[in-house]
Write a structure and sequence with these properties.
Elements lengths: L1 H37 L6 E4 L7 E6 L4 E5 L2 H15 L1 H12 L3 H4 L4 H7 L4 H11 L2 H19 L6 H6 L10 H13 L5 H13 L1 H7 L44 E7 L10 E9 L7 E7 L5 E7 L6 E5 L3 E7 L5 E5 L2 E2 L2 E5 L6 E2 L1 E7 L7 E7 L5 E4 L5 E6 L10 H8 L3 H9 L6 E7 L4 E6 L3 E4 L15 E5 L7 E3 L5 E4 L7 H7 L8 H11 L6 H8 L8 H13 L4 H4 L2 H5 L10 H21 L1 H7 L10 H10 L12 H19 L26 H5 L16 E2 L2 E3 L2 E4 L8 E3 L17 H6 L3 E2 L5 E8 L1
Parallel strand pairs: 1-29, 3-6
Antiparallel strand pairs: 2-3, 2-29, 4-5, 4-23, 5-25, 5-26, 6-7, 7-8, 8-9, 9-18, 10-17, 11-12, 12-13, 14-15, 16-17, 18-19, 19-22, 20-21, 24-25, 26-27, 27-28
Helix pairs in contact: 2-7, 3-9, 6-9, 10-11, 10-21, 12-13, 17-23, 20-23
Length: 788
């Protein structure tokens, strides 16, 4: 009895603490729900928006896609800013901070490594210069947009919910922030340092020029340039260099998929309406909400506009879509937009360096990195006439990165205004040449049936830099002479076939390629498949181009299937390996979730590349002190070695090529066993959507509220339907200018940034299934009036 009386107060205390804890959790949950509810966008009613010249009507359909109708372009920019500020401010904040190298100021010290690299480019200071370089019309648009963003943010009942989790408040949007958003895209789409050129130099030094050229070829048989040009294949090396006799090295992974895209267009000669049809799916890292914000934007009056497509929150323009006369889309260009400069310091004076115009002083800027909830740290930045110092050689020589993103023409908004008002393909191409953004393949078609390709963004005029290696620029032999004029930038207009395509691979050869350079063009697997898909049809409607966008047939892996079957034949005595034969024979060649054969072929390919390159690039890894990165087109050399099996090129530590494939098969068999057997070794078990809110990785259970289901998906990095975990088509658009009502569109993760928005994640299922809905917004579900 006495013992029981002693324990009872303890139990009561524990119960009280538990009840208080539950009550506290309930209070926190209730507060969280209130924040979510209060930070939802205003969908109905009337809101005053200072600065408007007339009321703007905003109608949203059931997926939250707005149709904005304004009396003028400035009012439209202000109203779009209001919507972006209401629905996407946190995303915009991340983008501007990513461009400026200020992410740690929002999310904490974990982002300091990124900030240290990006702050070297001092894009916040450069953004002010870019802003000053804009014309009066563009300045007015940007100012109206920024004012609209801040008004939209202020009209929320509470700051976006992410700021509550981060225990901070949002800073207002500025006009220069729009350019920082574009700078963030430069970081996403291009090299921001000299690593690739330094690696190429190390490969030549460690392997010799012949083997280095073979493993990093300028082109491959997969190339599918629109102009039909062919680059010579590098010859087989006669023998391996002595440096490779030391051992096999560690496996080297194939280069992961880089931001890219597919875009293709067919001429009006091949359509029922006589108008061109444009298809575009831009491949990027996927997140919640999606990077793009869908909108239809209309201006009435003397200068009418009717724009449909996607906008980029943080900017006031239509990025991809149609204006009723011209439609356009992008893919990453991968032309040369940066070069490594080896700085020659003056003897005995490390504060000055040699230039063709004589010695110049190294400028020093003291940047300050101030992570949230942690002390600030100083970051000294050295800058030259060519750009910032981004690294040093082993002997201390400074390495400067000369990058088109640093110049004031890196973001020229006049071209976007020109695209919005272009009425012909020619006008659209001219507008593209007056635009500044990360250099992209620009694909367009007009309502008259004309189609064309060019590079949008300014193309540097590079002298003495064809070898893609770092050089001193001290004597002027290696240099940039400004930028190409619009007349000099390559174009392809109305080709005889009536078809154009790009998929981040080489588009042109000859003199045009010499002007653009090779910034790491992708292997031509996707481009050649799209070319063949286009050639297989004599006529096109919108649904035909969507079918090409969602094509998951891996025709370029057929050779790898043959290699795998030959390897199985050579090692059939092992029952684990022989068991692979049936699913490989019946693999179907399609990257679909239930396919065991596809995963086996794809697994064999990746493991073979890892082992062969791990051996052949071992001296490069040793020289650099870390694993070498495979070149953008390293797959074909490995495939050719496994096909031709030259005895002189067997990787070190292997007796012959059978020993190589045997090791690969054993590793593949181990992976099958680890998965629980062949029946569980499906493509869908490793290929899933993997789309998350940026904070869901760091806040426990947040993904249950924010993220779409992480389920198996069709596609791969080597097929037109690019889809791997967390990466893929950020939108799919098919549109014929003048026939937008027949246009098709889908995108992942939906419009909304707030999980309590009634259309949160709307459209995710259609995107995953590859079934697109209409491009134009549907029936009106909400109506908002923005009044002066």
């Amino acid at each position: 009895m006495t013992t029981i009386r002693r324990r009872r107060p303890l139990r009561l205390a524990v119960l009280a603490v538990l009840m208080l804890s539950l009550a506290g959790m309930a209070v926190v949950a209730a507060y969280g729900l209130w924040v979510l509810d209060a930070s939802r966008p205003v969908l109905d009613g009337t809101v005053r928006l200072t600065g408007l010249s007339a009321a703007v009507e905003v109608q949203r359909d059931g997926q939250g896609v707005p149709t904005l109708t304004a009396a003028g372009r400035l009012d439209l920019a202000r109203a779009l800013g209001f919507l972006h500020g209401q629905e996407r401010f946190f995303q915009m904040d991340l983008l501007r901070r990513a461009g400026a190298g200020e992410l740690s100021g929002l999310v904490g010290s974990a982002a300091l490594p990124v900030d240290r690299k990006r702050r070297l480019h001092r894009f916040r200071a450069r953004a002010q210069a870019v802003l000053a370089a804009q014309g009066a019309e563009q300045r007015a648009l940007i100012a109206a947009y920024a004012a609209g963003v801040n008004a939209g943010l202020a009209a929320l009942g509470h700051a976006p919910w992410e700021y509550t989790l981060l225990r901070t408040t949002p800073a207002p949007w500025t006009e220069a922030d729009t350019f920082l958003v574009v700078d963030a895209m430069y970081f996403n789409l291009q090299s921001s340092d000299a690593d690739d050129q330094l690696t190429k130099r190390t490969e030549i030094e460690a392997l010799g020029p012949v083997l280095a050229a073979f493993l990093d070829p300028p082109g491959t048989p997969y190339d599918a340039p629109v102009d039909g040009s062919v680059l010579p294949e590098p010859p087989f090396p006669v023998a391996l260099p002595d440096a490779l006799r030391a051992g096999p090295g560690r496996p080297v992974d194939p280069r992961p998929p880089a931001p890219g895209s597919n875009a293709f267009v067919v001429s009006g000669r091949l359509t029922a309406t006589g108008s061109a049809i444009v298809a575009n799916d831009m491949h990027l890292s996927l997140t919640v909400p999606n990077i793009w914000y869908r909108a239809r934007m209309r201006v009435s009056g003397a200068a009418p506009l009717d724009l449909a497509g996607v906008t980029l929150p943080g900017t006031p323009f239509l990025i991809v879509g149609s204006n009723g006369h011209v439609a356009w889309g992008f893919t990453d260009g991968y032309i040369e937009t940066g070069d490594a400069v080896l700085l020659e310091l003056m003897p005995g004076d490390k504060t000055r360096y040699r230039t063709p115009a004589g010695p110049q002083p190294l400028l020093r800027y003291d940047e300050k990195l101030c992570p949230a909830r942690a002390p600030c740290e100083d970051l000294p930045v050295e800058e030259t006439i060519w750009g910032p110092v981004t690294g040093h050689e082993a002997d201390g020589t400074p390495i400067v990165w000369r990058w088109a993103a640093h110049d004031t023409n890196a973001v020229m908004t006049a071209g976007f205004v020109g695209l919005e008002t272009a009425r012909t393909l020619r006008e659209a191409l001219d507008a593209a040449h007056s635009a500044g953004l990360p250099q992209q393949n620009f694909m367009a078609g007009d309502s008259g049936g004309h189609i064309g390709w060019t590079i949008i963004g300014q193309v540097p005029r590079r002298i003495g830099l064809d070898d893609q290696l770092p050089h001193s620029w001290a004597d002027g032999t290696h240099r940039w002479d400004g930028y190409l004029t619009p007349a000099e930038v390559p174009e392809i207009v109305d080709p005889p076939s009536g078809r154009l395509w790009t998929a981040n691979a080489r588009v042109v050869g000859g003199e045009a390629l010499a002007k653009l350079g090779d910034g790491g063009y992708a292997e031509g697997m996707r481009a050649s498949r799209i070319r063949d898909d286009l050639a297989a049809r004599p006529h096109f409607a919108e649904a035909d181009l969507l079918a090409i966008q969602t094509d998951d047939r891996a025709a370029m892996l057929d050779e790898w299937q043959h290699l795998l079957l030959a390897a199985i034949d050579a090692h059939a005595a092992d029952p684990r390996i022989e068991a692979m034969r049936a699913p490989v024979v019946g693999w179907g060649g399609k990257a679909v979730p239930g396919s065991v054969g596809y995963r086996l072929v794809e697994g064999f390919r990746k493991l073979a590349i890892r082992r062969v390159l791990g051996s052949l690039l071992a001296p490069v890894s040793a020289s650099m002190g870390h694993d070498a990165v495979a070149g953008a087109r390293a797959e074909w050399p490995v495939e050719r070695l496994l096909t031709d099996r030259p005895a002189a090129l067997v990787p070190p530590s292997y007796k012959d090529w059978d020993a190589v494939t045997g090791a690969v098969l054993n590793a593949l068999a181990d992976a099958v066993q680890d998965a629980g057997g062949l029946e569980k070794f499906t493509w869908g078990s490793v290929n899933h959507t993997g789309i998350h809110h940026p904070l869901a990785r760091f806040v426990p259970f947040l993904g249950l509220l924010t993220d779409p289901p992480d389920i198996a998906e069709a596609g791969d990095a080597v097929v037109p339907r690019v889809a791997i975990p967390g990466f893929g088509a950020s939108e799919r658009l098919v549109v014929s200018p003048g026939h937008e009502a027949a246009g098709l569109f889908d995108m992942p993760a939906g419009q909304a940034g707030n999980p309590l928005a009634p259309y949160y994640l709307a459209g995710q299922g259609a995107w995953q299934a590859g079934t697109a809905g209409p491009l134009l917004p549907g029936q009106n579900a909400w109506r908002l009036i923005l009044e002066p």
